[in-house]
Amino acid sequence: QVQLVESGGGLVQAGGSLRLSCAASGRSISSYALGWFRQAPGKEREFVGIINWSGGGIYYPDSVKGRFTISRDNAKNTMYLQMNSLKPEDTAIYYCALRTSPHSSSRFMDYDYWGQGTQVTVSS
Question: Residue 25: which residues within 8 A CB-CB, separation 6 or more?
């Protein structure tokens, strides 16, 4: 079993930055792909950054490309999402997820473990 705990969410003004962290316990994450997803009210869950086991295979949707950066520190069993130039449309609950495969995927159904989520609210 793997437990994932997100932190770092909060309220920020448009144009501001936040850094989300996802701490894993119960198993080393070093062999597995990880992802960040978000879900806004009334919308489907969407990926905002994915990364494979070695730190490659990084992809972003166009909506966040150039503003968000995903990274991982396998020694610390932790993943990060640096979010810059935040916009009101980035407001959502952000989830981290682990896939029991070394290869990243943008499909949320491919992930096996999820954190509880952290709220990000961007005011205009």
Answer: 2, 3, 5, 77
Q: Mean pLDDT across the chain, nearest whole number? A: 97
Find residue 121's DSSP bridge partners: 11
DSSP H helices, the chain, are none
Given the structure tokens 């949320």, which residue do they identify? 108
Average pLDDT for residues 54-64, to the nearest whole number? 95
Pairwise CA distance, residues 60 & 117, whole Å: 19
CA dihedral 59, 110, 85, 82 (to 10 degrees): -80
90 token code pair:
């980035």
Residue pLDDT, tens place only, 76-116: 999 999 999 999 999 999 999 999 999 999 999 999 999 99
Spatial separation of the C-alpha atoms in residues 36 and 60, rounded to whole Å: 10
